[in-house]
Amino acid sequence: MVNFVGSSLLDSVRIKDVTCTACGMLCDDLVVARALNSNTLSVVEHGCSRSAALLQHPPAKPSARVHGKEVDHASAIQAATALLQQAKQPLIAGLGTDVQGMRAVLRLADHIGATLDHMNSAAMLRNTLVVQQSGWQVTTLTEVRNRADLIVAIGTDIVSALPRFFERCVWVEATLFDQAPAERDIVFLGGRHDDLGFASSPDGRPAQVLPCDMEQIPELVAALRALVTGRSLPVDQVAGIAMQDLQQLAQHLREARYSVLAWSAASLDYAHAELSIANITGIVSQLNQTTRSAGLPAGGSNGDSSVNQTSVWTTGYPLPNSYARQHPDYDPWQHSSAQQAAHADAVLWISSLDPSRRPPPSDTPTIVLGHAAMQFEQEPAVYIPIGTPGVDHSGTAFRCDSVVSLPLKPLRPSPLPSLSSVILDMEAALHASQKGDAHAD
Ligand code: SF4
Predict the structure, then answer these.
(1) Which of 115, 123, 143, 247 is most buried as measured by Cβ atoms within 10 A of its Cβ?
(2) What is the superkingdom listed in this entry's lineage (predicted)?
């Protein structure tokens, strides 16, 4: 239910406790104003530039299109269904949606034997491989807020992935266990960041910065792991960082009561980056023998956490996976969009949260169930506009720490259908067509 707090002006209404889906933090404290005459939305309290971008689109219901020609919804559903029915290797990709949308997608994939992959799967896979190969000890945003006394950001400034991280989780006024948040120590290890003023403590103490190029992160985290384990390295520096500074950081980690090592899988964009993540989680594991430490995979966008969680609890497997053999089949290489692009004979691209995430250029017939503000350089075979969960209709989303799910409230009356209702229409058309075929036989 939408929580209205009255209107300061007669021409708008304020909605409080709005959850933002523009990044994996899912901040749930936004206050949003809705103009009564136009139903346009604006963030009036809390939020950040990404939340403003999420809500900036005016309500609109463009027509569905088939080969660029405007058609009614039913005709677009028929055209999309016909394409999927003819396909021998359909691919459902993009997957920018929430839990309810993904549940409908899984049903459809099972029905048509499709392969599934998310637009962020290359980054997601770097984390998934570590979970599968060695397991990990990771924490939640709430634990960071209440317990962390040392935060080491590795190869990331964190705020590029989670813009309000320091505001909501670090420089807070109070914690549950009387820890003084202003005394926290922040270290940026690796990467090169322009402006880290947001990471200075409220009394002006700057973060420690140990920079290096991203390509040198592998050797840096391997060295830090060796030092935390108690080994010595016969070199003066690693990746341009003085050995003395690394030894001090290893000591700091061993002495901290609750250290958090954060990374962003999207930033670690080099071959076999999962090995760097395994070294980071290996440091955490080593530290937990004598103190307390946890990893924090910072990131999440376009519903990747929600979609992956829904896949895991429904099928037992993360993405990408495939239903081509009538059962869930997990193979992160064979079923990736990059591999499937060469084999798929129909693509269903879904992007309900971000209109800029379009399907990659392709000669394969493509159906787009997409944001109403989407503009195409290459017109898809079929385009059906859908609403955004948490803006046009209700939904559920998972936070980047994967243990907290939050309800999403509609913020305005909207003519746009949800992804799950469009998929229901497609399933009805598929059933009707299959029944017709059976009668004809
Ligand atoms: S930090 Fe993320 S979830 Fe919070 S308001 Fe900004 S974009 Fe939205």
Answers:
(1) 115
(2) Bacteria
